[in-house]
Design the sequence.
């Protein structure tokens, strides 16, 4: 789906339930890609960034959740993303929360979701990743199954890493979604340490056999206190985790957002912008240059992306902004961030 046609199609898409519209948009993009109607350059020397031992063609990425099952990597990549993060992927397939579970707040340029990690499981996703042709950086976001007790969560994360790391340029550890019961408790340092320690050990074992060490990042909540973020950053540095993604969705709600704001779930989009930027600034102040930081939350213009880099992010990701602005946003962000 080209950037020029999206403003025409968006009103039609917004008459459909959000998940149906999302599926239609992706299938349309897939069709256009097969007809070679898409194919943006991923970047030139003025856009390239080296980070975590990886070469990013440009600083603009697609956040996890948009392509949960890695069905559309090549088509999405043809829109010009420098990196794409698929998932969240769990060891076993799961349906997620009951419908409806995705809601628009058009007046706020926001979304609320309580998806609950619906995905086809790591085996199916791995088979798709093996067919990827997209030449940009590919991240894989991993989580635990809803049915897995918190005290056994480490087993799910390690299983996913073991299955998927061979297909990934980096692996993101999702311990911050508000839509899997209890998951955010895993952000507490005492709970997060054993998970990340086990993943570091697994990474070393995989590297011994493959000769390639896959970077690890943790994805954190915007609802954490400054003290919590500080403690997490210190833990990541101690364990030699490569980076952090800030942030996931928020449980807070904007004022005067209407009845839809009463739906449970995590909010993304424009109202998240300040929370995410502040989290990035806190993490950078603690970490210095010892962590790569991906800033995500409320980025819907070139100025938003520049502000995120000024706060301390190395890269940015979009999700809700893509839904409201369409593929033209990607080029706008790339132009704004060129040579920064």
Sequence:
């Amino acid at each position: 789906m080209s950037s020029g046609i999206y403003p025409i199609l968006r009103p039609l898409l917004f008459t459909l339930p959000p998940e149906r519209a999302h599926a239609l948009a992706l299938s349309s993009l897939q069709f256009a890609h097969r007809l070679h109607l898409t194919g943006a350059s991923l970047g030139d020397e003025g856009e390239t960034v080296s980070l975590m031992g990886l070469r990013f063609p440009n600083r603009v990425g697609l956040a996890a959740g948009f392509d949960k099952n890695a069905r559309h990597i090549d088509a999405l990549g043809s829109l010009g993303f420098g990196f794409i993060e698929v998932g969240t992927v769990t060891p076993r397939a799961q349906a997620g929360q009951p419908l409806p579970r995705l809601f628009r707040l058009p007046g706020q340029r926001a979304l609320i979701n309580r998806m609950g990690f619906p995905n086809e499981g790591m085996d199916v996703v791995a088979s798709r990743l093996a067919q990827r042709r997209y030449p940009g950086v590919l991240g894989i976001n991993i989580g635990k199954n809803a049915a897995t007790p918190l005290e056994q969560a480490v087993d799910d994360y390690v299983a996913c890493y073991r299955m998927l790391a061979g297909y990934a340029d980096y692996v993101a550890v999702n311990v911050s979604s508000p839509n899997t019961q209890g998951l955010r408790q895993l952000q507490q340092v005492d709970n997060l340490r054993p998970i990340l320690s086990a993943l570091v050990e697994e990474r070393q074992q995989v590297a011994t056999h493959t000769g390639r060490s896959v970077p690890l990042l943790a994805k954190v909540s915007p609802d954490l206190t400054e003290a919590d973020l500080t403690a997490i950053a210190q833990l990541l540095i101690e364990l030699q985790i490569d980076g952090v993604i800030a942030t996931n969705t928020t449980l807070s709600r904007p004022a005067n957002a209407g009845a839809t704001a009463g739906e449970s779930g995590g909010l993304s989009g424009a109202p998240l912008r300040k929370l995410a930027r502040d989290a990035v600034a806190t993490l950078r102040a603690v970490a210095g240059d010892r962590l790569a930081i991906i800033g995500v939350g409320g980025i819907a213009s070139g100025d938003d992306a520049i502000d995120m880099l000024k706060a301390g992010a190395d890269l940015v990701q979009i999700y809700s902004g893509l839904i409201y602005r369409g593929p033209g946003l990607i080029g706008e962000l790339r132009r704004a961030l060129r040579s920064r």
Observations:
- The two ends are 28 Å apart (CA to CA).
- The first strand starts at residue 49 and ends at 51.
- DSSP finds eleven helices and 13 strands in the chain.
- Residues 62 and 84 are 5 Å apart (CA to CA).
